[in-house]
Fold each of these.
Amino acid sequence: ETGVTQTPRHLVMGMTNKKSLKCEQHLGHNAMYWYKQSAKKPLELMFVYNFKEQTENNSVPSRFSPECPNSSHLFLHLHTLQPEDSALYLCASSQVGNEQFFGPGTRLTVL
Amino acid sequence: QKEVEQNSGPLSVPEGAIASLNCTYSDRVSQSFFWYRQYSGKSPELIMSIYSNGDKEDGRFTAQLNKASQYVSLLIRDSQPSDSATYLCAVNGDSGGYQKVTFGTGTKLQVIP
């Protein structure tokens, strides 16, 4: 297993469902990130964890809940999402302040 | 003022030409600068890092940094249709005591065969 992995790669969920996105990094990094990228829009930083501590929450709605149990794993828990939350969700990791390496992303569709 | 600014494009160049992508940043104390390539529907891929003034070359790619002008650029020589993608500039900086990397909105490059 190399780099940054994300599961699932595709997810379709209803507005009342609860689901979780998982990210795992095998690079020995100490920072992990969640980004949202809607169609034809730039990257939007959602959450940052440095040394397992959340250091940034960019005004993300509470229906998105991150969890970082250790420096290698990052989760994004989803509940009561809206159709406008449909997007590509990207996880990345880095040594703090250095270049970030991205996972392949989870393509989320909310019906 | 945006922290990292890029022209959204699209920038169209003929195959074989040099593509020049530009990025300006606002944080004067930034020390690390990165270029990513993102194909449509895919995740960003790191292609270059540059830390000191001047040029850094890697194959057909050259990153140029001018800290005094707060400007970083990416040149792609002998552009190929496969280079058609969105190129993201990223800059590190301090955010409340933590180092943070900020991305620009990206420049879309189209290489015309």
Note: Residues 42 and 65 of chain B are 27 Å apart (CA to CA).
Amino acid sequence: GAGVSQTPSNKVTEKGKYVELRCDPISGHTALYWYRQSLGQGPEFLIYFQGTGAADDSGLPNDRFFAVRPEGSVSTLKIQRTERGDSAVYLCASSAGTSGGTDTQYFGPGTRLTVL
Amino acid sequence: AQTVTQSQPEMSVQEAETVTLSCTYDTSESNYYLFWYKQPPSRQMILVIRQEAYKQQNATENRFSVNFQKAAKSFSLKISDSQLGDTAMYFCAFMRTQGGSEKLVFGKGTKLTVNP
């Protein structure tokens, strides 16, 4: 595709419910990242995939958050038992995945999650 | 841990004038990358400019340039001939190049308004 896409654009859910957020990276990009952006803040790192495996999940706040990338392309961020504090914009980014941090990360438009 | 500080929550500039956004960071790494991203109301983060720490020459992209002072750990963004379309949130970000994780660490952002 032309860029990183994320669905849904907006998601409203009730406290305690389960949600899934989807990210479709740029075609051919092996690296994929999830960030969370709370109101008035910069994005904060959640998890990084290189191919199908999570190379760094140190940013996941607790075990209610989980992400997968089974075929090395599309990724899904899963949040169980949502809490009001989970309300934020969830951003996905992808990069070509070469070593040394030389790759630019290209961001999607984000999913705005609201937990009532 | 690396931190990024943007000390100007909001700034404004008249169209066609020049504005400088400040960013400082803290790291013990010797090699790393620095970025400025723009986030318009559409939420999509767009790369403005990047700088490799081992390069002494300041990066330039058309109307955008940086003043990188490695010893002072300062990385400011200068926007020349400001345009109405430059109105957005601007985020400074740091990426380490060691350790296998290419995550970005962002500052809290500066809201820039370009006035006609």
Note: The interface with chain A takes residues 4, 32-33, 37, 42-47, 50, 91, 93, 95-97, 100-109 of chain B (CB under 8 Å).
